User: What shape does this take?
Amino acid sequence: MNPIDTILQNFGLVILDGALATELERRGADLNDPLWSARLLLEEPDLIREVHADYFRAGADCAITASYQATFPGFARRGLGHQAASELMRRSVRLACDARDAVWATLDHTRRPHPLVAASIGPYGAFLHDGSEYRGDYTISDADLLAFHRPRMAVLSDAGADLLALETIPSFREAQLLLRLLEEFPQTWAWMSFSARDGQHISDGTPFATCVAEIAQHPQVAAVGVNCTAPGYVAELLRVARDLTTKPLLAYPNSGEIYDPATHAWCGIASVGDYAAEAQKWYAEGASILGGCCRTTPDHIRAIAAWARAAHQGAERV
Assistant: This one.
C-alpha cells in the first residue's frame, strides 16, 4: 500500500523534514564540494544522524536521506568503486532509519504516525554541481541519462527506505525517464517533486499542468508536487495541480533565498516570516504533505507540527 496514503488516512497530513544540507552547514559542516551533503556520508555520518533525529523530535513524519547528490560517478571522482559507493548510499538510509527508531522509542505513539524514510534521488543537474537542477538544460542523451540514474535507483530501492523521493526535478524529460526506470522496480513507491521557475512552469519551462497530468497517472507515484522553489509560487502551483489529480500533493519549498551556482552559496533574504502560517495556506490549496527545503530548519518543522497536531486534536474532539 502507498505508505503516504496509510498516514493520510489516519492523520490527514504528512509532515516532512526540512533542509538537510544547509542545516548541516549551519552546524559547521563544510559542504563546498561536488558531493555536497553526500560528502558527510564519508566524513561525518553521525552529524547526519543527529540532524535527522532533530527533525523527528521537531515533529517530522518523514526524513529524506542524504543521498540527493550521492551518485556512482560522483563517488568515482573520489576514487570509490561501485561496492564502496553502494555502501555509502545504503548508509544514508540506515542513518535516517536509526535516527527514526531512536526517537520513536521516546514518543507518545497515540499522537503521531510511525515516521517514514524517503531515499532521495536528485536530478542529473545536482551531479553537475552547476545550478542546472534549477534549469534542466541538459545535453545528455536519454540513454546516458537512464544509465546515470539506474544503478543508484537499484541500490536505494533495496536499501530499506519506505519509498523514494524523486526530488528537485527540473526537466519533464528527466521526470519521464525516472518513471520509466521506476517500472524496473515494481514494488517501489516514489514521490515526484519538481523545481519551478514561477507559478505555472517547472524549471525547464514545461507547464506544471503538463507534468502533473502525466506523472500522476503512474501507478507507483505516491504523491506529486514541488520543492526547492520560492514559497511565493507554491499556492499557484498547487491550484494548478489539484484540478488534475487525486494523488496527494506535496510542497516543501525553500526559504525564498536564491542559490548562486557561481559561488555555491545562498543569497538574499528569506521571503517567509511565518513558515507555519504559509504551510497552512498550502494545506488549504490542497497540499497534504508539507515540509521545507533549503535554508529551513527544525524550528520551521516544529512550527508546522504544532499547528497540524493541534488541528488534528480539534477535529477529533468535534
Observations:
- The mean pLDDT is 91.
- The longest strand covers residues 163-169.
- The beta strands are 14-15, 62-64, 116-121, 163-169, 190-194, 221-227, 249-252, 258-260, 265-267, 287-290.
